[in-house]
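Researcher: I'd like a structural prediction for the single chain below. Treat it as a standalone chain; there are no partners to consider.
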Amino acid sequence: MAMSGGKDDGEPMMEMNTTPLIDVLLVLLIMFIITIPVQTHAVKLDLPVDDPNPPPPPPIEPDKNRLGITATNQILWNEVPVTLNQVKDYLVRTKSMVPEPELQFQPDAVSAYLTVDRVLAEIKSSGVSKFGFVGNEQYSSFSKASRLPN
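Model: Treating it as a single chain, here is the predicted structure.
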């Protein structure tokens, strides 16, 4: 592997050609990278098992259903806590019943306006035709100071 250094004297070059050595080392490095098994990072967790028997939905009564909002802004369908998405589903199901059952709406006097507004918007968008407010006697004495929480 001796080569001329470009001089006219014809003496051999004294430096070693390292290009083939680097090529061999790169090939070995690639071989090691390919043969190393892929490391998988796993965290062992004991996840809860899904109950195969979900709780039955609150029954939709054929004559009237009560939709309420508690003072803690929890939505109740016939005294059973539900989410807003469940309320949407129940309203669609009651709309399709013949005859359509009456929907009675009773928000608590100190429940948040935003929660009441969202529920009323869902009632309106569902197209329920038999709708009424119940429990209006709690608003008979309209006094802002008496309803403020301590």
